[in-house]
Every structure is written in C-alpha cells, then in structure tokens.
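WARN no homologs supplied; continuing
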Amino acid sequence: MENKINVSVPAVPRVSSSNRVRIGPMASKPKEPSVRLIRDGQRIESIVVSCACGQEITLHCEYPNVESS
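OK structure emitted
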C-alpha cells in the first residue's frame, strides 16, 4: 500500500529577493559581478555582492554602540 499526502499549494505568487533565475535570451549571457552598498545617510547598512552566475549575498553590517561625549 502506498502512502499519499495531499498538499495544497496557494495560488498566491511568492517573491523572494534572494533567489533569482534567468530566463529568456539573456539567460546564457554572462553578467559582471558587482558590489552595492546600502546606506542610511553616511552609515553603511548592508553590502550586496552579486555573482556573475546571478546569485546574491547580502552582508548586514552591525556597529558597536558608540556614545557621544
């Protein structure tokens, strides 16, 4: 006897900023790697590294609490 599990998947599309898939004519063309800085004023909040393959890694910056004197 076979065990079966019924799973219903919602029809609502889900968007994820961390997973990208290339489709269409541009899918086979290589992309240059890049680095983007996400800022809040002069403070760098995160660094986004994009690979030529299309994957991205986001590095979130944490700073020690510095009290002004």
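The mean pLDDT is 75.
OK
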